[in-house]
Every structure is written in structure tokens, then in C-alpha cells.
Amino acid sequence: MNIHEYQAKQVFLKHGIPVPPGGEVAGTAAEAEAIAAKIGGPVVVKAQVHSGGRGKAGGVKLAKTAAEAKEKAEAILQLHIQGLPVRKVLVAPALDIAHEYYLGIVLDRQMGLPAIMISREGGVEIEEVARTKPEALHKLHFDPARGLRPYEARQLAAKAEPDGKVAGKIARVIEKLAKTYASVDASLAEINPLIQTPDGDILALDAKINLDDNALYRHPDLEAMRDPDTETDSERVARDMGLTFIKLDGSIGCVVNGAGLAMATMDLVKHFGGDPANFLDIGGSSNPDKVVTAIRIITEDPNVKAILFNIFGGITRCDDVARGLVEGVKQTGVKLPIVIRLVGTNEKEGREILASASGLHPAETMDDAVKKVVELAGAGA
Amino acid sequence: MSILIDEKTKVVVQGITGRDGSFHTKAMKDYGTNVVAGVTPGKGGQSIHDIPIYDLVSEAVEATGANTAVIYVPPPFAADAVLEAAHAGVKLVVAITEGIPVMDMIPIMPELKEMGVRLLGPNCPGLISPGKSKVGILPGEIHKPGPVGVVSRSGTLTYEMVYQLTRNGIGQSTCIGIGGDPIIGTRFIDTLELYEKDPETKAVVMIGEIGGNAEEEAARFVQEKMTKPVVGFIAGRTAPPGKRMGHAGAIISGGKGTADEKTAALEAAGIKVARIPSEVGGLIKEALGL
Predict the structure, then answer these.
(1) Same domain, A67 and A121
(2) What pLDDT is attached to residue A285?
(3) Please, which pLDDT band fits residue A286 given cuts at 50, 70 and 90?
(4) What is the nearest CA distance from A209 to chain B, expressed in angstroms?
């Protein structure tokens, strides 16, 4: 799960990482104006949306007065950035910047440890720095159970800042960010840029935290930060039901068990000239209700012209999927063509259940099933 | 021969009385796996499917000589269960559990390494040496003994590939699901090393997916260390960036970990990569000279 910049800054403050003071979040232009008036000076108005490239998309604007802040907020709140609507803006004091650094922590899968990365080249895309100027990016792994040692933080800070006094302040931020990363079960914690003010203060001008979904059960306070606007209604319904659903733009609804097979099915749809409307993994358990929900979610998408079931029964039983399919068709009254391929556990029983249903197109292999659904989706378009 | 498990494998099931644990214990036993003990704290002294239950893994190992543990316990307790098994003296721990926090896994990895205990998973379907033993949740009946090793980050996609191989008359030495999480105990390269040494394995199918760089790492290993042919497949060509595709580890982040990148790395290492799953059977036949 991702949280917004203003939420990540709340988490930072709680852990003692300094952020620009007085920033508040607004849902309307009038609120933004009031916050700017309270701050009383130039402010920056920033779109709160889960996507990179906010600046380039016009989602970050400077305003000299409260009236101007209102105007900018008005415009930003109408934006869609990478398809996501902007519902909130952060209004924060605009600061003078003496220098911009990059500081981030990500999981290094190969090492099995988080890696702290710091660079004197901040405020730009760090992937770009890593590619073009790798020597400017300094890296250190740490064991979150043991924690990062203060001297390690000081050594790292010294690589990005020659002035010992300023480096000391950066070291404290590094230490605190490492603690934050471990204590909130983050998969990414990033400050880009971390700034030095003309007075030599160090502040997190931006904040990004991604959380490990598997650990959210022990962080109800962070779970409560979930922004309902970042997932579609369908994605939310799916998640509540234990399905993994990701909406795409194509016309072929896919219902598959298992993440790898679901990806491979989407790829095959594309390979044979179709376009998948979604990624949907019904998971391992045999629950007909999940299948009913899956059909409901898919048929709510007006782009869908045909539906493909690709089920390889292991823990998932084909007869349960078949029962869910028949029930789902009945409940939704779906008229779209449905291609179904069932293999594995209780395959025979599954096929018997489906034989009684009409409008279904059975297929033997994955290739046949996908070719057939692509053809049917084309015919219905 | 086969790798990691065979007729001599003696299995203790942790979380044997849970819904999944109980169901798959029966399936393993029906397949012929030597399941010698189960563990559920507080249920010691009882039995299930004629298998004795113990409170502690150490008691189970002492009483039965179990050398392999399989874990079906819920995510909040699973990392601890892995350590319990390791300290009880088993040499292979197979963690089926999906949804273990990464921060729980990080600290136990060095400890396992120090003890010389191999972890498979977590979030994996387990492994099978057809005709000998299966540990985990893979459907036994689609497999057949033979010369091909299959290793994958996915469950059902592996079944799909195995099903094809079997229908093409090609059997398998050992099929392994290494798991879909970012932190896993056994990586592609670990299994490739074992397949390379195993006299029965003549070729390997490696099924990767988007996210991370385990496939690139494996490609380097194949190029430098392997004499046996490897056929690859990468799932997630059409996956949008930044979205977690079901598996916690299956995500393209910062433009890295794409299917195209991985396919290119595999091909550069001389690995034949199937564009679609149904090509795998043909490529393996070719590799085996059939």
C-alpha cells in the first residue's frame, strides 16, 4: 500500500524527521487559501496523488499570495495525473534551498536486506542518477533488527556533504529514516529532495513511503491512511473478497487462479491479438462466492466484450469454480460470451456442472481458449 | 536421483490441524510421501490421518527422525515456525504460507544460513520428485518421473508447464516452486546448481516473472556454470508498471524488472525462451534431442 506525501510527513514527524513546518492538506481551493493565509508568505501547492512525475504534470505550483494559492489549488484539483484524480493538495511554506540531496531506503532482494542510498544529486529522478552517474549514489545495507549504527549514518552522510556540521544533521535524519523504515514495515522510504536551507537546516521537502501489505495487520493506524480514491470500487470489492484484481484497458475479462498463470494468460491474450481488460487472480481457495464476485466485477466494466476462465485446479477445485460460474451468470444475467478452460482437481465434475449451462464455450488448452475468446471479443466489438 | 527430496524424505507438517495443513497432509500421504509427524501447539498426543501430533517440532524430530518440515501456519507465526524447525534439526524447511511480512523474514535468513538449513519459499507451492515424494500443495497426478527439472516463481503456471510436458510424454526429475515473495530462501541459482549436479536431470525449465532480478542472476549462472540446456519462460509481458501482480514480488518498479529485460538477459546467456507457454514442450524436446 502507498500513502500520500502529507501522510508520510506525518509519519516522519512522529519519528523525529524534520519537515517544513505549517504544511496542511486541503480538499478544496478555499481550504488551500485559508492554509496559505495562515502560513502567510509564499507557499507551494502540491497534488496528493500516488504517481511520480507530479511536477511535470502540473501538479506542483508556487503561489506568492493566499489568493494565488486558491487559484493554483483550483487548477490542480481538476487534474488527473497518470489517470488518477487529484482530490487533495498539500499547502506548505515555500522555502529557500541551499542544496538538494537524495535519501532513500529500498529492499535489496538479492542481499535480503534494506539498502540506504544517498546522493548529493537530489531533486532529480534517482534512477537517472543511478544510470548516468552511479559514482554519485552511495549505498549501505543494514539489518533492521540490529538497526543502523550512528557511526554508519555519519560515514554515509559524509559522502554526500563535506561540511561536518551539516553532515551531522543529515546523519541524524538517516538514522531516523532507517528506524522509521523498520518500525512501519516499509518496502520503500524516500526523501527526494532532502534539503539544506540557507541557515544550514536539514528538512524533508518531499516524502514517500510504500508499505508491505503483508504487515498492515500490525499497523491499523497506517491501514487507516488508505485512500479510497486510489483504487476503483471494483478493486476494493475484490480486495475485500480476497481476490487480486487490477483493471486494464482491454476488452477481454480474465478469471484465473494463481498470479503467474494470470499474468501468462494476459500475455497470451495479447499474443493472439486481443487486449486483456484486467488481471484477476481468484487465489487458491475453492470458494464459489469468489467466482460470483469475479464475474460481477468484470461485467461492470463496459469495455468487456468477452470473458475467459483459465483454471488449473490444484487446491482450487474445478467443480467449485463451475458452481460459482453458473451462479454468477444467473445473478448477473451476463449475456457476454464466456470461454472456459478447466483442468486439474475435479475437472470431470466441473465439466458436468457446466454442461447444463448455456452460452458457455469450452476449450481444451490454454491456446485454444485464448484464441477463441479473442475471436468472440472481436465479433462482439 | 532427484534433488532435495526422494524416498528417504521424512516429513513433519507444522500446522497439521489447520484447514490447508490437514487437507494437504492427506494429499501428500496419498501420493506416497512419508509423512511421519505433525505439530500443532496444544494438540500433542492426538493424531490426524493416522499421523501422530506433537506440541513441539523438536519432540516430533526426536520421536520420528523427520528431516524435512513443511509449514502451513498463519503468516504472523510462520517465520517463527521456520526457525523452530531449523533449530529442531531438520535440513529442509518448506514454507507454503503466503503473506509473511518481509521484516519477519529478513532477520531469520542469516540464522538459517549459519545453521546450514535450506528454506524453500515462503509463499510457494513446495516441490515434488515424481513417483518418490511430494512436499507441499502441488497436484501429484499431473507429474511423471523423467529427465526434466522444473523451477518456477509461480504455482499454477508451473502446473500448466508440467501438464504440457507430461502430455508430450516428457517426465520430470524434481519440480520446485521457489515462491513469489521478495525474500525467499532458495533462489533460481541454488536450484540450477543442484540440477547441474543431479545425474538424472538432463534439462531444466525455468519459469520467471516480472520484478526483481533473480532471472538475470540465473542467466549469468547458466552462462558461466551450466552444461545442461535450460529453457525459459517469463510471465508478465503485459503487466502495467507499478502494480503488484498478485505475488508480493511481482512488480515493475522504477522501470526495472520488466519481462523484456529478463527475456533479453536469458537469451544473451544462450537460454531458449518460449514466447508462449505451449512452446515449452517443443523447446525441451529439441534440447533433449528428441
Answers:
(1) no
(2) 65
(3) low
(4) 14
DSSP B239: P
C-alpha cell at B179: 515462491
Interchain pair A263, B207: CB under 8 A: no
Identify the CATH number of the domain in which residue A28 sits: 3.30.1490.20
> Do A132 and A195 have their domain in common?
yes
Q: How confident is the model at residue A347 (pLDDT cuts 50, 70, 90)?
A: confident
- Structural domain includes residue A365: yes
Domain encompassing residue A212: 99-223
Q: Which of A6, A101, A102, A181 is catalytic?
A: A102
Contact call for residues B266 and B258 (beta carbons, < 8 A)? no
B244–A213: do the CB atoms touch at under 8 Å?
yes
Number of residues written out for chain A: 381
Q: Is position A260 within any domain?
A: yes
Q: Which residue from A110, A279, A312 is facing B160, i.e. has the nearest CB? A: A312
Q: Which grid coordinates belong to B32?
A: 506416497
CATH number at residue A154: 3.30.470.20
Same domain, A72 and A206: no
| Res A200: pLDDT | 95
Domain assignment present for residue A12? The answer is no
Q: Is B19 annotated as a binding residue?
A: yes
Spell out the residues 6+ positions from residue A356 whose beta carbon is closer than 8 angstroms to its own: A326
pLDDT value of position A317: 83
Q: Are residues A241 and A363 in the same domain?
A: yes
Same domain, A254 and A321: yes
Q: Do A212 and B277 touch (CB under 8 A)?
A: no
Backbone dihedral region for residue A258 (phi beyond 0: left; psi -120 to 50: alpha; all else: beta)? left
pLDDT digits (tens, 9 = 90+) for B123-164: 999 999 999 999 999 999 999 999 999 999 988 999 999 999
- Counting residues of chain B whose pLDDT is more than 90, the rounded percentage is 89
Cell numbers given for A274: 486481443
Domain final residue pick, A65, A93, A121? A93
The verdict on A89 and A128 lying in the same domain is no
**Cross-strand partners of A359:** none
Nearest CA in chain A to B253: A127
Q: How far apart are CA A93 and CA A95, in angstroms?
A: 6
- Condensed to tens digits (0 to 9), the pLDDT of residues B209-261 reads 999 889 999 999 999 999 999 999 999 999 988 788 878 778 777 677 899 99
Q: Say yes or no to pLDDT of A355 above 70.
A: yes
Q: What type of residue is B144?
A: K
The DSSP output letter for B124 is: -
CATH number at residue A253: 3.40.50.261
Give yes or no: A6 in active site: no
Q: What is the pLDDT of residue A78?
A: 95
The verdict on A341 and A248 lying in the same domain is yes
- With respect to residue A303, please indicate whether it lies within any of the assigned structural domains: yes
Q: How confident is the model at residue A130 (pLDDT cuts 50, 70, 90)?
A: confident
Give, to the nearest 10 degrees, the angle between helix A318-332 and helix A347-355: 20
Q: Sign (positive/negative) of CA torsion B81, B83, B86, B91?
A: positive
Task: Give the closest of A107, A213, A260 to B154, CB-based.
Answer: A260
**In the numeric block, which cell numbers belong to residue B48?**
490426524
Return d(Cα B248, Cα A285) in angstroms, integer.
Answer: 18
- B95-118: per-residue pLDDT in tens? 999 999 999 999 999 999 999 999
Whether A313 and A356 map to the same domain: the answer is yes
User: Domain boundary at A54, A75, A93, which?
Assistant: A93
Q: Tell whether B217 is within 8 A of chain A (Cβ).
A: yes
Q: pLDDT tier at A62 (50, 70, 90 boundaries)? A: very high
- In chain A, how many domains are there? 3
Q: Is A190 a catalytic residue?
A: yes
| Separation in Å, CA of A104 to nearest CA in chain B | 13
